[in-house]
Amino acid sequence: MRLAHAAMALGMGVSGLSVSAEALAHPHGWIDLSVQVMTDDQGVASGLYQTWRMDPFYSLVVFEELQQVENASLEQGLDQLGKEIRDNLSGEHYLTEISINGERQALGEVSEYTAMERDGRLVFMFILPLETPQSLTDSTLTYQVFDPTYYIEVVHEADDNQPTDDALVLQGGPACELSILPANPDPELVMQAALLDKGESGEPGLGRYFAETGSVDCTGR
């Protein structure tokens, strides 16, 4: 199995793909993200239902390569791709950090996922469970989704630079205040990222400073 450079940066294994890093700018691609925070009627959070829409260029290359695989339909290729993405992301904590009242939460393993084509874009959808469900009563849940090396940029779905209504949704549970906080990296880090060559990734941890933060504030409600 050969792995695309861009896919490796995300921990995503893609059979037979050979995306050229030289064809991409830095960040070398992006993901449009939407998140549903899953809770029950008592306000106990069980995980995040995430939808990742890969950028059009990366999606195009993936679909072209999948269509060239002999004796396999696009649907079969996407099924295999989804499994490889899930398997490789599992070693990277699914590029996701979740905290409740500032305390980092342990994550479970993803068992529900799918990869599909939608309007010319590769879409990967999955449920990322908390290892132990947690009550959001009088609590604040925050999360970040990011590639540590900042090879890929992850941003919430937006329209005119404003998050869309479905970029962050609370599924079930109490009425809470939802917000998406923009990244505010130090200018030196912005310069560091800008100086990376086409084939380079940043130092591990760089992506954190460019990550948006989703917040579900249920305090006093």
TrEMBL record:
Highest rank taxon of the organism: Bacteria
Keyword Signal assigned: yes
Keywords: Signal
Residues making up the signal peptide according to the UniProt record: 1-20
InterPro entries in UniProt: DUF1007
Protein name: DUF1007 family protein
